[in-house]
Design a protein that fits this description.
mainly alpha; 15 helices; globular
């Protein structure tokens, strides 16, 4: 047990060690050039963590590993639960059936496509394929983090998935505005473009950057559709847990007595989104009053703390990633992520236009 009397001090030292790295990542992410690129502290954290893992990891006591593991597992689940305070059901309702359908179709199709391509075409293992697919289909690095405990995947596989999110998400952040300004996305007005951006670009920060460049209508649609995709991670993980249990039972693992895996942190995530929705509704009903300002401040502080906890989890994940574990994968993750990016860009355009015209 990490917090047994004999291990408590070393575990706390390991957690503090990760927190110091996460604080450095947070400060780096606030620097001008990094911030303008829409690179979140989570991404900076995993980069710093990987650097540590492949250079300095022998310089700290091995007993601290328990605290690093705790940060990458337990703190991660806690942070994912409170990620729900970034979402309200009212925001999802505002964008209507159009935003919901684009989010649902793109998430489901991208996850299935990425998983199939990774395993069947590019011969990657199941976990790396699913982690890469979850990052592209839902919400980037945070989705990879949320999916990793359901799969019980190794840290380096999640690191590979995050690196693909960073690469193609950054490409999208520059390519989408260039194509839209050049008139390539024929027939799209600013609101439709916002729905397209929110339904297909990887990271929340990248969506904010692209949507915000084209006015309030595009920005609002992009962010709300993106957050609709984010909340869909909960049912996706529950379905994934059911699927993994079915596959394990069918293959006869553990003598056929396979326990159904339900990621309860995903259920609690929806619960926190519900709490946030109620608080937002109450705050709107009492606009201008001190209690409304207090609620807003509390939610903002929860989100700040939650971002730091997610950064700790990502940093800890990076700390468990050794380059030696990447051998044998070759360019398969790049090909898989590239194919999903092409689907998000091209397929996402036609699906968005069809949904907007239909609904």
């Amino acid at each position: 047990m990490p917090f047994s009397p004999a291990k408590r001090k070393d575990t706390l030292s390991g957690i503090l060690f990760v927190a110091i790295f996460a604080a450095a990542a947070t400060m780096i992410a606030e620097m001008g050039a990094i911030k303008n690129l829409g690179i979140s502290p989570l991404v900076v954290g995993i980069v710093i963590g990987i650097f540590y893992a492949n250079t300095l990891h022998n310089r700290i006591p091995s007993a601290w590993e328990g605290g690093i593991t705790f940060s990458g597992k337990k703190i991660l689940r806690f942070a994912i639960v409170f990620y729900g305070f970034r979402i309200t059901f009212q925001e999802i309702a505002e964008v209507g059936m159009e935003g919901f359908m684009v989010s649902l179709i793109m998430l489901a199709s991208t996850f299935v496509l990425g998983t199939w391509l990774g395993q069947k075409i590019f011969k990657m293992d199941r976990d790396t394929s699913m982690l890469t697919a979850s990052g592209a289909s839902v919400c980037g690095a945070a989705a990879v983090l949320a999916t990793e405990p359901v799969l019980k995947a190794e840290e380096h596989k999640a690191a590979i998935a995050v690196s693909m999110v960073v690469l193609f998400g950054t490409i999208a952040m520059f390519l989408y505005p260039a194509l839209y300004s050049a008139g390539v996305f024929a027939g799209m007005d600013d609101r439709t473009f916002g729905i397209f951006v929110g339904g297909t670009i990887h990271e929340v920060a990248q969506v904010v950057a692209v949507g915000g460049a084209y006015g309030k209508e595009a920005s609002d649609a992009a962010i709300i559709v993106k957050m609709t995709r984010v909340i869909m991670i909960a049912p996706m993980l529950i379905l994934l847990g059911i699927y993994l249990s079915y596959v394990a039972r069918k293959s006869g693992e553990s003598g056929g007595g396979v326990k159904l895996v339900i990621p309860w942190f995903a259920v609690y995530f929806i619960g926190m989104a519900g709490v946030n929705s109620l608080l937002t509704q109450y705050s709107m009903a009492h606009a201008g009053e001190s209690v409304s300002a207090m609620i807003t401040t509390i939610v903002e502080n929860i989100n700040i703390i939650d971002t730091f906890l997610l950064t700790m989890a990502m940093t800890a994940l990076g700390m468990g990633t050794r380059f030696a574990k990447f051998r044998g994968l070759g360019l398969a993750p790049l090909y898989t992520a590239g194919a999903m990016f092409a689907w998000l860009l091209i397929g996402g355009y036609f699906i968005t236009m069809w949904v907007v015209a239909t609904f």
